[in-house]
Structures are given as structure tokens and as C-alpha cells.
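Give me C-alpha cells for this 57-residue protein.
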Amino acid sequence: MTQMQLNAELLRNMSIIAEDEMEFTREEFSSRIEEARKQPGKQFASVEELDQYIQGL
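Here you go.
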């Protein structure tokens, strides 16, 4: 899976969560994305490694 595909999947999942838990305005959602972009990034060698990281949260 490419980085672009992972980002698209992440944003899709975030929008589903946002709909389920609470309603965000476009501005609130955008500001949260911008805040997340300021955080240090992580890289994973495989989908399995990513899955292990997520399961550990």
C-alpha cells in the first residue's frame, strides 16, 4: 500500500469515526488534521508492523 493510499484510508476512517461519535464542522476537522501534521511522523516497513502499532495503542 502506498503512502497516498494509507493517507486516503486514514482520512476515510477518520470521517467515519467523526460521523459516529460527534459532528465536526469542516473547519474543526481541518484544524485537527493540521494539528496532527505538526506531530512527528512514523513509518512502518509493513502493514503487519502498522497493525501491531495500532493494536498497542
